[in-house]
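Example 9 (inverse folding). The structure is encoded as follows.
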């Protein structure tokens, strides 16, 4: 009988009531008991069919993480359900976070009818799908993603949510995929905190001539978690000779003690 006391107090679960994958961190004091921990999770959570152990941070151009399958099914592709839409993903092949559900639902209602929205680093397209479902009168959502596995899942998620008439999936580097949309967007979402500052000029260039809104993500440390992001925006917009105003600041998720994933929503003026 698996020892339920080994189960971590919190861990990520991606999937549905039918099939889900649990993603855990095994502390050093339990590193030799990883399989026991996994078996306990499987026993306690009947919908969990696989347990993955984090073996690295997110790394590389594709933002993927190394995992070890501790127990369960080798096929870790799942169909995750949230807020009336579905996201198909294999967490071993593409980034997807259930913890960012609240942030997706914060962004989606801000989109107005007839807007054209650019989602850079779009992954398996959860933000694009959330927007398409929440604002059915959106003109177009462009989802640009360089990871071919993530882009393949994005295509599938657009299809299963019946949003092919609203969302365009572009399996490209944003430096290439965004160029044809320069001057055509009302809003740009940049959900990649580790490198977004290198692409801020592209985001601004995507906006229409009379301006638009950018959701800019970055890492921030206490006691001023928004300071770095605001300085990046200030310097880049000054270089581009564009006026702007910050309309919102949001702590999205804790990343480490005293460190946050943050978002600055700002409006670029004409």
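The amino acid assigned to each position is listed next.
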């Amino acid at each position: 009988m698996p020892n339920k006391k080994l189960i971590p107090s919190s861990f990520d679960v991606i999937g549905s009531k039918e099939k889900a994958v649990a993603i855990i961190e095994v502390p050093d004091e339990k590193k030799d008991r990883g399989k026991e921990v996994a078996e306990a999770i499987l026993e306690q959570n009947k919908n969990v069919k696989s347990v993955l152990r984090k073996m690295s941070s997110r790394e590389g151009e594709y933002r993927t993480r190394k995992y070890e399958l501790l127990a369960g099914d080798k096929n870790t592709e799942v169909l995750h359900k949230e807020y009336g839409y579905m996201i198909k993903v294999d967490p071993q092949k593409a980034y997807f976070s259930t913890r960012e559900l609240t942030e997706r639902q914060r962004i989606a209602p801000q989109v107005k009818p007839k807007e054209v929205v650019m989602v850079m680093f779009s992954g398996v397209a959860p933000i694009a799908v959330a927007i398409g479902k929440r604002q059915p009168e959106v003109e177009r959502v462009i989802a640009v993603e360089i990871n071919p596995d993530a882009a393949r899942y994005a295509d599938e998620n657009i299809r299963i949510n019946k949003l092919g008439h609203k969302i365009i999936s572009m399996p490209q580097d944003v430096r290439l995929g965004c160029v044809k949309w320069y001057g055509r967007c009302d809003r740009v979402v940049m959900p990649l905190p580790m490198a977004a500052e290198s692409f801020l000029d592209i985001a601004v260039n995507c906006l229409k001539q009379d301006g638009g809104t950018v959701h800019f993500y970055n890492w921030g440390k206490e006691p001023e978690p928004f300071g770095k992001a605001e300085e990046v925006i200030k310097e880049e917009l000054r270089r581009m000779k564009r006026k702007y105003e910050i309309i919102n600041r949001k702590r999205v998720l804790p990343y480490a003690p005293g460190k946050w994933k943050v978002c600055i929503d700002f409006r670029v003026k004409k």
